[in-house]
């Protein structure tokens, strides 16, 4: 690696809280008390400071040093002319930090007063005074005492980035749990402590420590975010995609480096992911149509100027094997052209019978630094997944799920192929110190092909299932000839789905000073085109062979045969959405630590020729009386079009939302540990739910009903970072109270159709009230055991109401809450120029049996569930060079 190795302060630098920290793991209250104790003292300490200064022209580096160290520098600017600094990352006393910064320059620093340093040339004598700049030589000749000379004062100011160095946090060897800046909330790479929004970032070290290989598994590190597959929604598409629930509202949309990708978001692999940003609350002002609970922005790995090569081999339970490669560096000698390539291959089974997966991923990136002011980047991703799908079916008898092994699958092997191709380019240009422009364009195409999948949908004996078939006017002699038993009635289905997303965006950013106020002004516009096409395949109802039966208590595959494994076309559906947006945002720094952010967006949406538009505002205020604490509040509105149609085919009315939020953010130990506590009140109108009286093929793939209003509110707590050198922690908690507050009276008696689950005052199903997590790791910093790491964590979920897709009451049944425990151990060692690491993770240590969601059809004694993964082991060996 280039640069200086980052070091952490030793425990002796925490004298006031020393006795408390040794017991902090026993109580979160004691931990918080310790943090506030340290934060209160950090302002007065004059020891080590935290520095993030990349290599750059020396005059600019000295400006950043003065800001980060609170030291006054006295020197002639001619001394640093045409010189470059070394990079400086880590914790040092100011004098030692400046010496490292000047290591390649013929200069040295001399303390000439309290918080004042003077720069001089090295090895100066009266004989070589002619080599000095004229101003300094004259001053030295006039000094009769021979003492240090204080040159005329040079005013030093740092820029608005507060020392944030993207290169440092992009370093593949970086182990920080806390990333100080994020783009999701403002699009301007703003410090999180200066953003009046709730933004959380999951760093690459967290993903590595937990061996996260799916985006959905990363969200346990953020409060108020849960995921589930669509197997809990009547088994549609066999679980080929997952939804993200933020503050109780589901979203299939996520963003890649700030640009929209549609569908399949939570199932994305992480081979090329640098970090994950989560913005809580409506984000429509900057990103258009987004669910009001928030948005997820995945930051991908970008090319580096320093060559780096990484190889990781993972292996785990259920025959999981996963190989990843990461390579980056310059293509040309002058480092104007950089590349990065990430590859992964995964082959795995499942704890569920007849389910497996093969996944190939390839992501090249090419960056061209045309000049110091202008850059162009070309990106591509290709992902091919072939898997056996799973409907997540269990019998639901007498209001309770049947106690069957989690491995039992009442379907048959059902193949599906998902292919995703992404391409994009972006360019940026810095006109001057104040103005810059960025433009991006991307295309994402996702195709899901499922030639057939077997879907159970009813449980019963010969008599009860025969009555169901009689309702269709179909014979059931095959059923009558079977031995007396309980059977699952199954259908064969299939289909193809195509999602195409086209995105373009232009942003103009200005950093301006007017009347003593500092502005960060954003002017922008975007356009999104979303194309959706699906072809449904279902059974032919010309004979009894459209269905199959398999025993509930003793299933023997493949059950009774189908007439054909080639389902016929049942219908098609398509949708085209055009979104146009113009927005303006201003972030203003006021005196006394106050900051104001305000913005407005004009949004025009055309969904299948149904045109809607609106203007939505966002305003936030933040007060930062000290560098380690911020108080903030915001009000946000959003607007969007609903997908789907109301019977007999009119579009679902548009949706809107409004949120009030307030909170407090704190950071400790020079920004290594950050905590936030927020309370929000969010209301969304016209929430679309399935119309049980008009399923497919009505309205294409089924009609919808718009519930009048749903409100979500509650507190959220997030703590992450480093407490002591080598000791990292993540703690989250959220209490999400999401309820129906109004029903839509426009001719649709919603409660009568959907049951008590959607009546005013009822909680929405499958959303746990309380969620929480705790994760902690410790890496030994010295001795013979240096590089040895241990970690443990727990994930908590409250009980939930089950979903109900056809309005039949589920009685008193509640999905039980659960707690799962995880462990990890690892060891890393430097061998020559390579860093070799081994690691073992155990998830769900106690092998807890649980569901994350459940939707029941009581009349058919059926349920579709999202199964919790049993105890799993995952090991890995990685080499970094």
Textual characterization of the structure:
With 881 residues, the protein is mainly beta. Helix content is 10%, strand content 50%. The protein has a 22-stranded antiparallel β-barrel. Strands 8-14-15-12-13 form a 5-stranded mixed beta sheet. Strand 34 and strand 35 form a beta hairpin. Helix 3 packs antiparallel against helix 4. The longest helix has 15 residues. The chain starts with 17 loop residues before the first helix and ends with a strand.
Keywords summarizing the entry:
five-stranded mixed beta sheet; single chain; mainly beta; 881 residues; disordered N terminus; 46 strands; 22-stranded antiparallel β-barrel
Write a brief caption for the model.
This protein is mainly beta and 881 residues long. The protein is built from 12 helices and 46 strands. It has a 22-stranded antiparallel barrel.
Whole-number average pLDDT?
Answer: 82
The share of residues in helices is: under 10%
The biggest sheet, with number of strands, parallel, antiparallel or mixed sense and barrel status, is: 22 strands, antiparallel, barrel
- End-to-end separation: 9 Å
List low-confidence stretches.
1-46, 124-161, 231-239, 746-753
The Cα radius of gyration reads: 30 Å
Secondary structural class? mainly beta
Number of helices: 12
Shape: globular
Secondary structure: number of strands: 46
Beta-strand residue percentage = over 45%
Give me the secondary-structure topology.
Layout: H1 18-21, H2 28-42, E1 49-53, H3 58-69, E2 72-74, E3 88-92, H4 94-101, E4 107-113, E5 116-121, H5 134-141, H6 166-170, E6 181-182, E7 190-191, E8 199-202, H7 204-209, H8 215-218, E9 225-229, E10 242-246, E11 249-251, E12 253-256, E13 259-262, E14 273-280, H9 284-287, E15 294-300, E16 308-316, E17 320-330, E18 337-348, E19 357-371, E20 374-388, E21 393-397, E22 400-401, E23 415-430, E24 435-460, H10 462-471, H11 477-480, E25 487-514, E26 517-538, E27 547-551, E28 568-589, E29 594-607, E30 610-626, E31 629-640, E32 645-646, E33 650-651, E34 655-668, E35 673-690, E36 704-724, E37 727-735, E38 737-742, H12 750-754, E39 770-779, E40 788-797, E41 803-804, E42 818-831, E43 834-843, E44 851-857, E45 862-867, E46 872-880
Parallel strand pairs: 2-5, 12-15, 41-44
Antiparallel strand pairs: 1-3, 4-5, 6-7, 8-14, 9-10, 10-11, 12-13, 14-15, 16-17, 16-46, 17-18, 18-19, 19-20, 20-23, 21-22, 21-45, 23-24, 24-25, 25-26, 25-27, 26-28, 28-29, 29-30, 30-31, 31-34, 32-33, 34-35, 35-36, 36-37, 36-38, 37-39, 39-40, 40-42, 42-43, 43-46, 44-45
